[in-house]
Amino acid sequence: MAGFLGRLRSALSVRTVARQVFSLQAAIVVLLVVAAVVALVLQSRADSEREARNRSLAVAETFASAPGIEEALAAPDPAAVLQPRAERARKASAVDFVVVMTTDGIRLTHPDPAQIGGPYIGTIGPAAAGGIVRETVTGTLGPSTRAVVPVTDAEGKVIALVSAGVTLEAVSGVVEHQLPLLLGAAAAALAVATFGTALVGRRLRRQTHGLEPAEMTRMYEHHDAVLHAVREGVLILDGDGRLALANDEARRLLGLSPEAEGQLARELGLAPDIARLLASGRPATDEVHLAGDRLLAVNQRPTDSGGGPSGCVTTLRDTTELQTVTGRADVAQERLKLLFAAGLEIGTSLDVERTSQELADFAVPRFADFVTVDLADPVLRGEEPSQRGAAMRRVAFRGIRDDTPLYPPGKLIHFVPSTPQSLGYGSGETVLEADMTAFSGWQAQDPERARGLVDAGIHSMIAAPLRARGVILGVVTFWRSRKPEPFEHDDVTLAEELAARAAVVIDNARRFTREHTMAVALQRSLLPRALPEQNALDVAHRYLPAQAGSGGVGGDWFDVIPLPGARVALVVGDVVGHGLHAAATMGRLRTAVHNFSSLDMAPDELLWHLDELVTRIDQDESGDVAPVTGATCLYALYDPGSQMCTMARAGHLEPVVVRPDGSASFAAVPGGPPLGLSGLPFETAEIRLPEGSSLVLYTDGLVEDRTRDIDEGLELLRRTLAHPGRTPEQTCGAVLDALLPEEPSDDIAVVVARTRELADARTAVWDVASDPSAVGQVRAAVTRTLAEWGLEEASFTTELILSELVTNAIRYAAEPVRVRLIRDRVRICEVSDGSSTAPHLRRAATTDEGGRGLFLVAQFADRWGTRYTADGKVIWTEQPLLTGTSDNDG
């Protein structure tokens, strides 16, 4: 025995690679065989148990559902009927028992007839409730698996239980059949391992090329001489990352100890970046790394690329003399990158304060620890800054922390002349305060605050003026605290570049702010400052100009125009473009609509004249001015007497009609072309609006947004308006709450008009016969009506006006002649006839017998005029109500 152990120890201690490989492979094969046997045994046990569970459950379920079970259970002696069936099933299915029992567990069948009538030993509760019991127990026959299933009648009621069981030994036995195969496979594996060992030996001999020992020694000597003679450091690391070879130059450059060979790269005490490179083994070409006070250019290549051993070879070259030049180049490159990034991040909007904050956010912490931006107050209003004094408002602040004594944003600061901010603002030159702890004059602004700044660690600053197009807008101050080195003159150049880039953007934002402010002021001056007094409509409106930076002020506008006969015109329009030109054009169109309305034109005729005007405007304007063509307009005319609303539109969105019951729908107004296209007619639509209805006019800025389709906006508007009982003011608020975009890119105008009815008690109508004697009857009727209204003092002038108008209608016009008297905010007299010939005012000579009628009418009436209808014309006059008389008296 001792001799055998000695031979085994001798075999395992051999040095040859082939024998070591053979021993290793043999051990692996043995381990695999043992593992396979263990796995097979475990798998066999698991399969046996699973097969036993499945077989017992299948047999129990099959027997429980077999035909005739229910009838057998109902027999006088169910055990006598079921026992032979159960035994046949047990033998046919190769299970150890099939037991039928009552729901209480009393056996009706059993392989041992003596056990019939006894209680079943096992769990039956879940099966009696309609479930299934599966369990593994150890009995007299060894481990076995059994299943208990219910027997149910046609109504699903459990009437009995069936249990089947089988021992694990009955379904096992796989291992005994597979052991011979496993041992044969192990013998084959050993044979393959022996053959593989022979192949490895042949490959080793081929790789050494059959060199003699002397030849290999001479090659090593030559290789050693080359490594020690070269003036570059050479390192060779094996596949484990251990240092296999280091020449003299590498030891000198890296400061390696004599015991360095054999150690891991990370254990050599090298600089972290060089150690990581050596440990990684990745290829590298002229990578520059710092080793102590030397700057090394490192090249690294793997040694196994040509079939050689794993590892890598690294060469080191001392480039310390290039360090200074490289450092300056890196600094210049970093500053170029910083300025490039500044051009991308500073100036994303045309807002002065936001641009200033972007400058501060960008510079911290890339260039400074704290940044403050102070601008002259006029700059924030879009005006030219004044160079008198150094009063500036702090508009931006950013720092690595907030607990500093620096002035907060929003503070108006009056800098004293000795401060760098005042010097830079006044001279336009950047001021460097390299050592704030010297208190060379900058502390005169606030000595106590200055001591707090120094105590907080702020030790140097640069104050750079924000100069753009020859104008100094303010000062940006860069403060340093965390970095111990103070700002240098090279930093001043970078600060000036940052300030110059930001100043141009701030000046652009200032100019845009000025233009936007002017456009808003012009636009607001051209829009109605107050709604006119009238009784036909209860009107509310909202107007929101576009935000600065979102296109500027547009040309949206609206108007409410009282017309003769207690009627009211509603107008809303939108001019193409933004800015001052759009606002001025809007004013021209609004004035034109006022003038055309005074002529009492129908909506379609008014739009036709407005279309002609736009065409002439575009023809007269120079090519540098944006055209007006494409402007839209909606004109609606409401008559409270008939409750009819006549509308026409030129390229504008349809208005929404809200009925008194709260239902909302878009008015079917024919769509005409935008203004300025000419040649195409406009059509009108007449809609009856009962008292309490609302007419909603709006511009496209309300329903159109970048994140929402216009159809979605229109539907949202309709749903928002579909609400009964709201006042016009409440409706305007609800519409803006639901549809107002976060950043409106266009003007928004909304007009909500709720209709009123002209009550019968406030009007009187008479048909006049074509007979001069009828004039007296009209005068008498007018006198009675005015007395009923409490306006007896106005009878004389009213009778005189109507006498002249009715006489002219009877004498010169055609039938029918009708007189209507209206008591509104003014007293209105209307005489209509069937003639389209308009009367004209003239001055009669002293010898003329006639021609003074209209002259008298013009003298006694505040206003008078003529409007045409489809059947003729109406001559109307307006007179004021007497003082103290309410226009709402019924």
Describe the structure.
The protein has 24 helices and 31 strands. With 890 residues, it is α+β, with helices and mostly antiparallel strands. The strands form 6 sheets. The chain has a 6-stranded antiparallel sheet with strand order 12-11-10-15-14-13, with helices on both faces. Strands 17, 18, 19, 20, 23 and 24 form a 6-stranded mixed sheet that branches. Helix 11 packs parallel to helix 16, helix 16 (489-526) runs parallel beside helix 17 and helix 17 (580-598) packs across helix 18 (603-620). The protein is flat, with a radius of gyration of 53 Å. The N and C termini lie far apart (137 Å). The model is unreliable at 10-18 and 844-850 (pLDDT under 50). InterPro entries: Bact_Sigma-Reg, GAF, GAF-like_dom_sf, HATPase_C_sf, HATPase_dom, PAS, PAS-like_dom_sf, PAS_4. It is a multi-pass membrane protein. The chain crosses the membrane at residues 21-42. Its main location: membrane. It is found in: Cell membrane.
